[in-house]
Amino acid sequence: MALKTLSAANAAALDKDLMSTGAFSIDQLMELAGLSVSQAVYKVHPPSRGKNVLVVCGPGNNGGDGLVAARHLFHYGYKPTICYPKPTKNELYQRLMTQLKNLDVPFTSDFTSALQSTDHVVDAIFGFSFSGEVREPFGAIIQAMEKTDVSVTAVDAPSSWNIESGPPDEGPGKNFQPEALISLTAPKPLVKYFKGRHFIGGRFLPPSVAEKYGLEMPAYQGVDQIVEVDQNGHRL
Fold first, then answer.
1. Taking every pair of C-alpha atoms in the chain, what is the biggest distance, in angstroms?
2. Distance in angstroms (rounded) separating the CA atoms of residues 24 and 20
3. Model confidence over 190-216: pLDDT tens digits?
4. 3-state secondary structure 19-51
5. Is this model's pTM higher than 0.85 or not?
6. CA distance 190 to 46
7. CA distance 234 to 236
């Protein structure tokens, strides 16, 4: 049985449902997403493998998820560094940045230099709404992640990938295969092109919403917010 996925249009519609009839706020959804990302990183790259984690954030919600994840990682004992080349002035994102600065988490605009001293990278640049051309400085950052030997966890999508058709035919990200992918809420169609470890983080999803979008939610264990699955959606 193939893993059931959520198209970009349905993912956007589902988010609207969660924030209307579901009564969730954007803050809550971002907090839950970032928590799931942090747990996936802990599974893929426990602190014993190195505590330095470089979190690269894009200007949208995916970047916000990365900021939340970095805060949780700090409290797990990691030493996160944030690369946030194009921060948004939105009040929510400014608060997330302040929370990190209050923890003395460093921010850098030099991804290449930061990459040399990190043990793991969190790719939180682009999510399910990405389409079109990758603009700088993100093109160079994606190419650096593509070539590095440092392990990478991608948030919802490897950056530059099309949600439906996967990696681009050319340009940044053509050969980008992160070690791990954390699909937020539900997997997107691009997972059929992904070859690494795959986690799902959607333990907050109301059954009525899952049913509306034809999603079969995996069996989460204990207090875990994530579950690792194979290509058929079976828990590992």
1. 47
2. 7
3. 999 999 999 999 999 999 999 999 998
4. HCCCCCCHHHHHHHHHHHHHHHHHHHCCHHHCC
5. yes
6. 26
7. 6
